Amino acid sequence: xxxxxxxxxxxxxxxxxxxxxxxxxxxxxxxxxxxxxxxxxxxxxxxxxxxxxxxxxxxxxxxxxxxxxxxxxxxxxxxxxxxxxxxxxxxxxxxxxxxxxxxxxxxxxxxxxxxxxxxxxxxxxxxxxxxxxxxxxxxxxxxxxxxxxxxxxxxxxxxxxxxxxxxxxxxxxxxxxxxxxxxxxxxxxxxxxxxxxxxxxxxxxxxxxxxxxxxxxxxxxxxxxxxxxxxxxxxxxxxxxxxxxxxxxxx
Length: 251
Fold this sequence. Notes:
Blueprint: H1 28-47, E1 88-89, H2 104-108, E2 114-120, E3 128-136, H3 145-149, E4 155-156, E5 173-174, H4 176-179, H5 191-194
Antiparallel strand pairs: 1-4, 2-3, 3-5
């Protein structure tokens, strides 16, 4: 078998540690070399031009300044579309909050940072509104569950801003006055929009499907066929679900 020089075993030579020389044991030359590197980068970053590429990972230090980090607040990176920013209560067309004080956001919040007190409108006792709606931004974990749980689209995190700094803890507690902002939102299915003109349907329409719009009636579902392949649906009475009483038949 011919000898293949590419697969021949490599030889390793381990050099003995001879220790540091008298020049290296002084440490002063090595310290001066390190200070020279630090000084070169210091003045290069100070007087050199910075790369203004918005993509931070693609910044290069070819202009003299090797710093590639974002100099906030002079430089800001645009937030992504799904960014969860500071909370806001969505107003209605009349300026009132869309919140109906159902406590769903406060219940689903894992950090328990939402506090709500409910009240009723004097001219509309059916509808509720929050007399107090407070969010502790220091306890918030920015999970977005409050937005997902709200049935009225009354709370959003689409401000694309983070919580500004404060000097006191109570500055991070946001009441209704600070939360109620942004453009108004209205839907045709809002009860305060359709209640004055709404009428009860003449008959009950089973909700077997989704309507094209929440204010339109849904189409009834077709009845199941009856035959050999489709037997008649069984019918039960209340007695079929009652549990037998132990010892009722004994004397």
